[in-house]
Amino acid sequence: MSYDVAAVRSHFPALREGAAHFDGPGGSQTPDLVAGAVHDTLVSAIANRGTVTPAERRAEQVVTDCRAALGDLLASDPRGIVFGRSATALTYDLSRALARTWRPGDEVVVTRLDHDSNIRPWVQAAAAVGATVRWVDFDPTTGELSVDAVADQLSDRTRLVATTGASNLIGTRPPVAEIAEVVHDAGALYWVDGVHATAHVLVDRPALGADFWSCSPYKFLGPHCGVVAADPALLETLEMDKLLPSSDDVPERFELGTLPYELMAGTTAAVEFLAGLATADWDHDPAERADRSDRRGRLVASLHALEEHEDRLGERLEAALRSMPGVRVHSNAAVRTPTLLFTVAGKDPREVRSALADKGVNAPASNFYALECSRVLGLGDGGGVRTGLAPYTDDEDVDRLIEALEAVTG
C-alpha cells in the first residue's frame, strides 16, 4: 500500500498559501478535520462535566474520548492520561510533585541532548529540595546518547532520570528501552520527553519502559496543548497542590481548572487523522470513531507507513545537503527522526533562513530551546537551520528546499 501524500495534503488548508513547510518540529500544520472538531465543540451546547444534562454529558464524552484516543496512540491506560496547557507546564507540575519525595543527597539525572523543558524543571525541582543533579553528555560527533553514558551517572541515590525520546534539534533517537532497563535496575523512575518522537514513530510506552511519557498534540497535527501518560497506580502515589473542592481522583488531580473541551476534541480528531494515514480514510465523523476497537491497529499501520514516507524523503534531502559545498550537517546519529540541523560556512543561520523564506521555504534557525545541545555541538546559543518533515511533506517540497539551498551555497 502506497502512502497517498496528495490525499493527506488535501486536508491541510494552510498549504494553499503555497509555502513548503519544513517547520513541523516547532508545530505542525492542522488538518481541516481537526479544526472542524474544535469548531463543532465550541459551538455545541457544553457545560462542566456531569451526567444530568445533555451539555454535561457532551463534555464528559469529549474527555473520555480524548483519553481513549491518546491511550491508543501511546499504548497506555486512558486512566493515566493527564491533559494540560503544554508539555512544559505539565513537566513543571509533575516535577514539583515528584520532588516532594526527594531528600537532600538524592540524585536526578538529565542529559545535554534534551530540550530545556526536560532539563530546567528537574534542575529547579532538585535545587528546591537539596537534591543533586547529574549530567549525561552525548557524543557531539555522532549525536549519540549511549546507555553506558546514562549508566555511569546512576547510583543508589538516583530518584529520576529524564531523557528525550528524540532530539528536537538533531533528531537523535536514544535507545529508550535499553536506558529504561538500567534506570529501573537502579531503582529510579524514568521520564521521557516524547514531544518530538511522537510525531514520527509508533509509541508503546509500557514496552519502552517509560514511567512517564510527555507529548504535545500540536506537534502531531493537533491543537496547542500537552499530555503526560503514566500508569494510574504510579500517579496515585503523587500529591498535587490543588483547590480543596476539586477532585483528588487520577488523572483529574493533575488537571487544575476546567478542561479545554474543544482542544481535547481536536486532539481526538488528530489521533484519528493519524490513524487514517495508511489508507487515506477520513470519510467519517471522528467522534463516531472515537471508541473503535481497531484504532490502535490502524495507528500501527499508519505510523509505519508515515515512517517509510518520511525516511524516503529524508534520505533524498540528506544526500543533497551533504553534497553541497560549505554545508555541514549536525544530525549524525544512526537512528533519527527525519530532522536535520545544518549550518553553511560563512553564513549566519538566520541569513540562510531568510534566503529560504524568500523562496517560499519555511525552515527556521535557532537552538529551538535545546540550548545545552546547541552548545555541545559548538554552535553556541545561535544553533543552526533546522528542516523537519511532516505527514504532508512531498517530493515537490523537498525539491524546492534543495533548489533554494543550492542558490544559497552556490
List the helices and strands and how they pair.
Blueprint: H1 5-9, E1 20-21, H2 32-43, H3 54-74, E2 81-84, H4 87-99, E3 107-111, H5 120-129, E4 132-136, H6 147-151, E5 158-164, H7 176-185, E6 189-193, H8 205-208, E7 212-215, E8 226-230, H9 232-235, H10 261-275, H11 295-323, E9 327-329, E10 339-344, H12 349-358, E11 361-362, E12 365-366, H13 371-376, E13 384-388, H14 395-409
Parallel strand pairs: 1-11, 3-4, 3-5, 5-6, 6-7
Antiparallel strand pairs: 2-8, 7-8, 9-10, 10-13, 12-13
Q: In brief, what are we looking at here?
A:
The chain has 410 residues and is an alpha/beta fold. The chain has helices at residues 5-9, 32-43, 54-74, 87-99, 120-129, 147-151, 176-185, 205-208, 232-235, 261-275, 295-323, 349-358, 371-376, 395-409; strands spanning 20-21, 81-84, 107-111, 132-136, 158-164, 189-193, 212-215, 226-230, 327-329, 339-344, 361-362, 365-366, 384-388. The protein contains 14 helices and 13 strands.
Q: Could you characterize what this model shows?
A:
This protein is of the alpha/beta class. It has a single domain (1-410), classed as Type I PLP-dependent aspartate aminotransferase-like (Major domain) (Aspartate Aminotransferase, domain 2, 3-Layer(aba) Sandwich). Helices cover 39% and strands 13% of the residues. It contains 14 helices and 13 strands. It has a seven-stranded mixed β-sheet with strand order 2-8-7-6-5-3-4, sandwiched between helices. A four-stranded antiparallel β-sheet has the order 9-10-13-12. It has a two-stranded parallel ribbon with strand order 1-11. Strand 6, helix 8 (205-208) and strand 7 (212-215) form a beta-alpha-beta unit. Helix 2 (32-43) packs antiparallel against helix 10, helix 4 (87-99) runs parallel beside helix 5 and helix 10 (261-275) crosses helix 11. It is globular, with a radius of gyration of 21 Å. The protein starts with a helix and ends with a helix.
